[in-house]
Amino acid sequence: MNTDAVLTPAETRIAAGYVDGLIGKEIADKCGVSYNTVVRHTQNIYDKTGIRRSTNALVAWFLTKNYSLDLGEIRRRVGAFALLCLVSVQIAATDPGSAFVRSSSARRVEARRAPSRRTRREDDTYIIQ
Length: 129
Fold this sequence. Notes:
mainly alpha
């Protein structure tokens, strides 16, 4: 990674969007630009910084550069574990009646109820018997 890379103000806004956890289309809406512009700026950021097309690496680079964070291997692993714990607690505390839980449960039920595909031969055999 090239920690000496200097981003334009537009590229900095795009990188900050990724740091905020947004995806390309959300960043485009937030910044008032087209999705293709976000993609172009993202590619320019990757080229300038030497990052190999990874949003996670882009976020790590941005935090290291702008907030003087040391993101060594052990610190990244500890941080990832802490984040996993926080997310797990949040998911466990989710209300079972929430829209997310209902929609994912409904999809599982629909998948179980889907009729199995039978061949024509099986249909004929079933009708004859």
